[in-house]
Amino acid sequence: xxxxxxxxxxxxxxxxxxxxxxxxxxxxxxxxxxxxxxxxxxxxxxxxxxxxxxxxxxxxxxxxxxxxxxxxxxxxxxxxxxxxxxxxxxxxxxxxxxxxxxxxxxxxxxxxxxxxxxxxxxxxxxxxxxxxxxxxxxxxxxxxxxxxxxxxxxxxxxxxxxxxxxxxxxxxxxxxxxxxxxxxxxxxxxxxxxxxxxxxxxxxxxxxxxxxxxxxxxxxxxxxxxxxxxxxx
Length: 233
Ligand SMILES: *[C@@H]1O[C@H](CO)[C@@H](O)[C@H](O)[C@H]1NC(C)=O
Known about the structure:
Blueprint: H1 3-17, H2 24-38, H3 56-62, E1 83-90, E2 95-101, E3 109-116, E4 122-123, E5 127-128, E6 133-136, E7 144-153, E8 156-157, H4 162-166, E9 179-183, H5 191-229
Antiparallel strand pairs: 1-2, 2-6, 3-4, 3-5, 3-7, 7-8, 7-9
């Protein structure tokens, strides 16, 4: 008679053991909470020199524990100067690819200023705040240029030293400013030109070898012929 309640009791114990696996869950929660409290301030994956970089504030908004952004100057002030990076020349297309890094300021847009050989500056199209790279097209082979990056926000534009601020014989320009000086090579150096150059060199070499050969033969041959031709007295 006691057997059935006993069996029920055993069954109850075994069934209660199955949900017994659940007490781990609060433990997991605790661990997650610990992770959140121990790593609250990782820097955002933000690179001020990376092209098409999402603004840090947006990264901060989308990351679950809010990441840290570099400090910025006040939005009520015009941006500080961006820093010009590499200016890579693609001579075949009379093209230059200009790189820059964002300043520590809120920026709404960028544009490039280009001084072709000391004339009036040409203003490039506006580029949104994610840009860190732009192309300059239609450059003249052999031309010398000054390029500056300008950043702007609601309060104004970053200052530009311009070509005068670079100094007349500053070869590479300042390494940390928004401007740089560059020179387009005088002639496009394509593979066709290189091949033509090698061909011309080979032709010249052959010609000079032939001339040298005949010259030597003349020098050696003529005195003998002369000796034979002139009768000895
Ligand atoms: C900036 O311009 C790029 C390329 O035109 C575009 O893909 C991106 O969505 C723009 N970003 C913003 C914030 O307007």
